[in-house]
Specification:
This protein is mainly α and 248 residues long.
Length: 248
């Protein structure tokens, strides 16, 4: 991931720091809004919170790591030729760890009020069937997560394309995540991000953990579909690493 033709890219340590910070803020900010303020702000407020986390952190650290904050984004970026496949394990490992740390910190904060129960409250975890907010079936939840993750990646790859308006990618990406949440909070509580799902799911009890597979598998499939198809559908011969596009 070189920054410019003759300049070495950011070190692995900086990439890890950027992805850790970004993913932590996404999970703590988005899921934190749902857990701590969900009754006050409602679905739309939670959707806005997730979008805002991506806007602010993509502007803050996107020029260092590309601002993925999501294993499905990393895999989609690799499939789309924006980062090397060999770089993906560092990104994904960092994102999952950051998500879990954010979930743990959120649990400490949420437990500061009497009677809080992460299992009973659901702890902003994702689910299908009886764990879907409005009881949507496994099939519906699988479809919506694959489709919306693919849409998310098409937006990311398009907004960071060399032909796109410069400097606006974080805004487009954050707004698209808000839109995705407005559509699918009632269906799955919205994952489109395995790190976000794992980060809180591990603290939400056995039923939540038992359903995590869908919120790992579906976003990965959606991300790969978009990554592999972007060049065919919309791409040019020019592709720019995500970090360079964020910096432009």
């Amino acid at each position: 991931m070189s920054h410019h033709a003759n300049v070495a890219g950011p070190s692995t340590a900086k990439i890890i720091a950027a992805e850790f910070l970004g993913t932590f803020v996404l999970v703590f900010g988005g899921c934190g809004t749902a857990v701590l303020a969900g009754k006050e702000v409602g679905f739309a407020g939670v959707a806005a919170a997730f979008g805002l986390t991506v806007v602010v952190m993509a502007y803050a650290v996107g020029h260092i790591s590309g601002g993925h904050f999501n294993p499905a984004v990393t895999l989609g970026a690799a499939a789309g030729g924006r980062i090397a496949w060999k770089d993906t394990p560092v990104y994904i490992g960092t994102q999952v760890v950051a998500g879990i740390v954010a979930g743990a910190v959120l649990l400490v904060v949420a437990s500061g009020t009497d009677g809080f129960d992460a299992v009973k409250s659901g702890f902003a975890s994702n689910g299908y069937d009886d764990r879907s907010p409005l009881g949507y079936s496994l099939a519906a939840c699988l479809l919506v997560e694959v489709l919306l993750t693919a849409i998310f990646l098409w937006v990311i790859l398009g907004a960071t394309d060399s032909r796109a308006p410069k400097g606006f990618a974080p805004l487009a990406i954050g707004l698209s995540l808000t839109l995705i949440h407005l559509i699918s909070i009632p269906v799955t509580n919205t994952s489109v991000n395995p790190a976000r799902s794992i980060g809180v799911g591990l603290f939400a009890g056995g039923d939540a953990i038992g359903q995590l597979w869908l919120f790992i598998l579906a976003p990965v499939i959606g991300g790969l579909i978009a990554g592999f198809s972007y060049a065919v559908l919309l791409g040019s011969d020019e592709t720019v690493p995500l970090a360079d596009a964020m910096e432009a």
